[in-house]
Amino acid sequence: MTTWTPVGKVNDFAIGTAKAFELEGEAVCLIRNSNGFHAVADACTHGAVSLSEGTVTDEGIECFLHGSEFSLVTGVPKTPPATTAIEVFKVQVEGDGDNAVVSVGI
Prior knowledge:
This protein has a single domain, classed as Rieske Iron-sulfur Protein. It has no helices and 9 strands. It has strands at 4-9, 17-23, 26-33, 36-41, 55-56, 60-62, 69-71, 88-94, 101-105. The strands form 2 sheets. It has a 6-stranded antiparallel beta sheet with strand order 1-9-8-4-3-2, with no helix packed on it. The N and C termini lie close together (8 Å). The mean pLDDT is 97.
């Protein structure tokens, strides 16, 4: 069963940014890009560093340390050196406009 945890309002997250959270004992990286909100594990599977410090793209997040980019939909690395996928979490937005609540499902 999914546990939904509110992490903020839409206007708390600028497009093109990532933010780290600790939810249900999991390190989670919440990303807002031009396609909406996404949540993935906040650790690169190659370098074990925080992905929330990386670069957000329209389809992924790039690790700042060695440049691996991970899909925000599947978690699969799109570029080396990482070869193992990261976990992907569900995100829901409830309400309307900038005050809508963003929640992550673990």
